[in-house]
């Protein structure tokens, strides 16, 4: 037997078994239309030919003959930089169900990628590790008002579904005086807006496509002006299009100042031409998906119009992990003061956003002692929040669940007797299972004034990714449905009107569901801090959150 020439064996080459997603292809069903290869934005499959051995016989007696034939097929490309992400677009466009991606639970891409590229893999989406159960799913609304405290009629009763964005003064500090038997304001108080308790969360210019941004803005305006729901939308980092900054719809937008300050000069320079004040300013210190790690927008998504809006060259945009100029809680208060005084002259509430962590309560405690009464909100973002791009190690292994941090912040305010003065807004996996109303209601009962959500909005728009490794390729600029890409061909796949309609419909449904949850407990206004309405069968959750344990 001839010895094996080991020089031809390359044991370190990546193989199909190493890939996270494998293409399952049935050539008998394939009509070779080519739609699957055309729809794949990641170049993970290609038309190819295979040489096959065919044995046949002719005549009445079997006399095996062999011939070689070549057949056209669709093949999966096996390499680390063009691997399938499982988006399923090939299966979506195939007329004969001849092809589909299949998850390989024995993949080794987490090892192979690092070994071959000497860098951490990056991706979008949420953490893909699900080692704990979801706390919000373990909580139920258990207190139902009946004969002694009648419940309300969700269909006929009037409900006040408004949350504060801006500093709320306690009664003894309200600047009112009585003159000639009438109540008058002696001086102006902090600016406070009363808005819908669900904000469309910050998603950056550049992270989203132009058409997706347009769709969200259209939906926000429609919800306010036609439906009558005062929903607000946060700009995210990177500024805004000039047309929106100069339009009357700016009053529905919360402008974000993130640690990179990208696009902020554009906002300041446009102020003389603004016809409306924005709904608020949000200073982002951190986010829940990658706390302690700065923002990231890869160069492939920094196209010309993004360069103009953000005022940057075509390169990877990495926001610093800390906010420039904010190195203490006291400085953050001063920064808010300066932002309001120099930019909008106290006409606009200013809030701060931080990532949930063991230090969050300390920050909130100190903000509650703000002597200037200018801190307009505390936005707290948990580990289950999403992002357009991050190192996978940050997404999966840093952060803090939102529920217990929110509860701790609320109870800290109660301990000081200052609950409700600096509104608490929470996020991080809100509406993860499509249950936005239920999640928001539970968070409000635990102490939040409202919630904000971003990833859910993308799912409403048609995102094909999930939290179990499917797609999660927002960072590549190759989003197959045109949501998180700047590629014009891919962006055209997104139907702006349909996306806006879906967002509007979802909020209308959510509004009905909120009333359906408030009515049984007898609340006609938001049940902030009404933890007595919640129960859980999980004793550890009951103990940690100080809610009723049931079985």
List the helices and strands and how they pair.
Elements: E1 21-25, H1 35-39, E2 45-56, E3 65-76, H2 89-93, E4 99-103, H3 109-117, E5 122-125, E6 139-141, E7 163-165, E8 176-179, E9 182-185, E10 193-195, E11 198-200, H4 210-227, E12 233-234, H5 242-246, E13 253-257, H6 264-270, E14 280-284, E15 296-297, H7 304-310, E16 317-318, H8 329-344, E17 350-355, H9 360-368, E18 375-381, E19 387-391, H10 392-397, H11 402-416, E20 424-427, H12 436-445, E21 450-453, H13 455-461, H14 488-491, H15 496-518, E22 534-536, H16 539-545, E23 548-549
Parallel strand pairs: 11-21, 12-13, 13-14, 14-17, 17-18, 18-20, 20-21, 22-23
Antiparallel strand pairs: 1-4, 2-3, 5-19, 6-22, 7-10, 8-9, 15-16
Write a compact overview of the structure shown.
The protein is of the alpha/beta class and 551 residues long. It has 16 helices and 23 strands.
Overview of the structural elements:
The structure is a single chain. The chain is α/β, with parallel strands linked by helices and 551 residues long. The chain folds into 2 domains: 14-119, Alpha-Beta Plaits; 138-549, Aldolase class I (TIM Barrel), CATH 3.20.20. It has 16 helices and 23 strands. The longest helix has 23 residues, at 496-518. The chain is elongated and about 115 Å long.
């Amino acid at each position: 037997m001839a010895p094996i020439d080991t020089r031809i064996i390359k044991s370190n080459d990546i193989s199909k078994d190493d890939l996270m997603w494998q293409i399952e292809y049935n050539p008998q069903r394939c009509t070779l239309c080519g739609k699957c290869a055309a729809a794949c934005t990641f170049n993970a499959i290609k038309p190819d030919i295979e040489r096959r051995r065919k044995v046949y016989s002719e005549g009445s007696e079997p006399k095996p003959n062999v011939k070689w034939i070549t057949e056209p097929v669709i093949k999966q490309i096996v390499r680390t930089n063009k691997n399938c992400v499982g988006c399923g677009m090939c299966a979506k466009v195939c007329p004969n169900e001849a092809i589909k991606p299949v998850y390989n639970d024995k993949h080794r891409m987490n090892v192979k990628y690092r070994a071959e590229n000497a860098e951490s893999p990056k991706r979008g989406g949420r953490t893909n590790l699900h080692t704990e159960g979801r706390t919000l799913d373990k909580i139920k609304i258990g207190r139902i008002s009946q004969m002694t405290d009648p419940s309300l009629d969700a269909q006929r009763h009037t409900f006040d579904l408004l949350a504060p964005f801006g500093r709320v003064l306690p009664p003894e500090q309200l600047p009112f005086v009585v003159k000639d038997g009438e109540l008058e304001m002696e001086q102006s108080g902090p600016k406070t807006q009363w808005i819908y308790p669900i904000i469309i969360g910050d998603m950056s210019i550049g992270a989203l496509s132009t058409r997706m941004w347009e769709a969200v803005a259209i939906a926000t305006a429609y919800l306010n002006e036609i439906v009558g729901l005062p929903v607000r939308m946060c700009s995210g980092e990177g500024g805004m299009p000039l047309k929106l900054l100069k339009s009357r719809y700016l009053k529905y937008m919360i402008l974000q100042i993130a640690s990179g300050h990208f696009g902020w000069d554009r906002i300041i320079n446009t102020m003389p031409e603004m016809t409306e004040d924005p709904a608020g300013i949000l200073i982002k210190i951190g986010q829940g998906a990658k706390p302690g790690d700065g923002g990231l927008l890869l160069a492939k998504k920094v196209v010309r119009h993004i360069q103009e809006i953000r005022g940057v060259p075509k390169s990877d945009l990495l926001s610093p992990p800390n906010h420039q100029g904010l190195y203490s809680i006291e400085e953050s208060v001063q920064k808010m003061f300066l932002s309001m005084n120099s930019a909008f002259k106290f006409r606009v509430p200013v809030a701060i956003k931080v990532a949930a962590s063991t230090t969050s309560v300390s920050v909130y405690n100190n903000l509650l002692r703000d002597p200037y009464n200018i801190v307009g909100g505390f936005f707290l973002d948990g580990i289950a929040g999403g992002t357009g791009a991050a190192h996978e190690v940050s997404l999966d292994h840093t952060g803090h669940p939102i529920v217990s941090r929110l509860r701790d912040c609320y109870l800290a305010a109660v301990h000081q007797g200052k609950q409700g003065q600096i509104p608490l807004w929470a996020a991080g996996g809100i509406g993860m299972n499509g249950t936005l109303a239920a999640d928001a209601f539970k968070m409000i009962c635990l102490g939040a004034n409202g919630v904000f959500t971003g990833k859910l909005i993308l799912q409403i728009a048609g995102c094909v990714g999930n939290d179990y490794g499917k797609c999660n390729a927002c960072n590549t600029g190759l989003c197959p449905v045109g949501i998180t890409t700047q590629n014009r061909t891919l962006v055209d796949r997104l139907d702006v009107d349909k996306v806006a309609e879906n967002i509007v419909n979802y909020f209308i449904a959510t509004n009905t569901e909120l009333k359906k949850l408030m009515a049984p407990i007898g609340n006609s206004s938001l049940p902030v801090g009404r933890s007595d309405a919640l129960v859980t069968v999980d004793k550890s959750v009951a103990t940690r959150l100080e809610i009723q344990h049931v079985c």
